[in-house]
Amino acid sequence: MNKINAIILAAGKGARMNSTKPKVLQALSDKTLLQHVLIQAQQLCSQVFVVYGFGGEQVQQAINDDSIKWVQQVEQLGTGHAVVQAMPQINNDSISLILYGDVPLIEQSTLKKLIAQAEKQGVALLSVILDNPTGYGRILRKNGKIQAIIEQKDANIEQIAISEVNTGIMAVNSGLLKVYLDKLDTNNAQGELYLTDIIAMAVADGKIIASVIADNEFEVAGVNDKVQLAELERVFQKNQATKFMQNGLTLKDPLRFDCRGTLSFGQDCEIDVNVLIKGDVSLGDNTLIASNCILKNAKIGNNVAILPNSIIEDAIIGDGASIGPFARIRPDSNIGEDAKIGNFVEVKKSTIGKGSKVSHLSYIGDTTMGRAVNIGAGVITCNYDGVNKHQTIIGDGVFVGSDSQLIAPVTLGKNATIGAGSTITKDSPEGRLTLSRSKQISLKNWNKPIKKN
Ligand code: UD1
Ligand code: CA
To answer: With a 6 A CB cut-off, is 83 part of the ligand 1 pocket?
Structure first.
């Protein structure tokens, strides 16, 4: 097999995006458009060239990959001219695979077919049949054999009616490609050097153009504006959701599920509507993610219930735990087995021991909590003195009464009980009741104020 070079065209400005970012840096799921193409190209090709123009520095910085060969196209004089820029660095006895930085969902299997055909026949072209071919180059065939590509702007009425169009993606023997690129001219409606003209040249040379027709429109769809970007995002999400469901994940509505990262899961997991997955998330067996949750870089065990409207980031959730509704688990938190984090509870950089419960309206930060602890409603660990963060240590079996403040650094000994409404500034001993409140009094000579006019 010959060496394969990818030449990714990415010099267009993408004015219709109405953005300060170059088009190929717009995001689809968790990657830029160009990254999607690069991933495919890098799996198949020994060298990857990216032809850049507008915003080149920004693109190179964002992609930050030393293995890529960046080629500048100073003026955008057409797709043929763009490919020419890479050719001096490419050996004749190789295959050049032409891809586009704004066509992100092209698949391996399709490209492999195209390359295999080019190995045999020298030139292989990827086309697609469209209900509405407007704007695209049309494929001209004679007796079924590809003869040429005619751009919309150069086409006659008969040609405009053809529904088979050029995707722009092709694989060509590099030596042949060089010969034909040298012969391109600008005798066309747009005054450009059309890459597409190499097809008629090869035919004139007696070559038979190998034809691959894309199975899926989405694979060859380009992104020119935010509407098309959103459409392809949906396609990407739907395809991904389909794979998850085929592997056993229950998605209540695959159209209301987004994964911008990687998700792994055990058996019998269920995800309700409007859940967003980011980064690396794993679910054990039999775990439920209720609606409106966001999970980012989370390792979630077996038999866990993440109840509605909860947000979990960079955290571990143990088997059998219950989180939410409306809970926020922030980075570096480890929620133990069978623990419960209830509504309006925020946990940050804390370990919660097995079976402990923080059920309502609390902030737990920089805390190490033992097992079987019960934290009453409205308890706050005061971890910040305005300058530094401090630790709170809570022993096994502790009970903290509602609306207490634990002023860190502070330690509550095993099985300690804290009376409700206490402000705890000193360590509290094991097994004892500790409280800090003023005694309750009722004033005898007090009268309710009277409203003044
Ligand atoms: C091109 C094809 C057309 C095909 C269509 C598919 C040619 C002459 N026409 O038309 O047959 O149906 O794509 O979308 O090839 N680019 C550069 N440098 C340039 C010109 C273009 O890098 O000088 C890049 C653009 O950034 C873009 C891609 O090449 O990603 C296609 O260019 P564009 O001008 O959009 O080509 P079309 O007119 O759409
Ligand atoms: Ca285009």
So the answer is: no
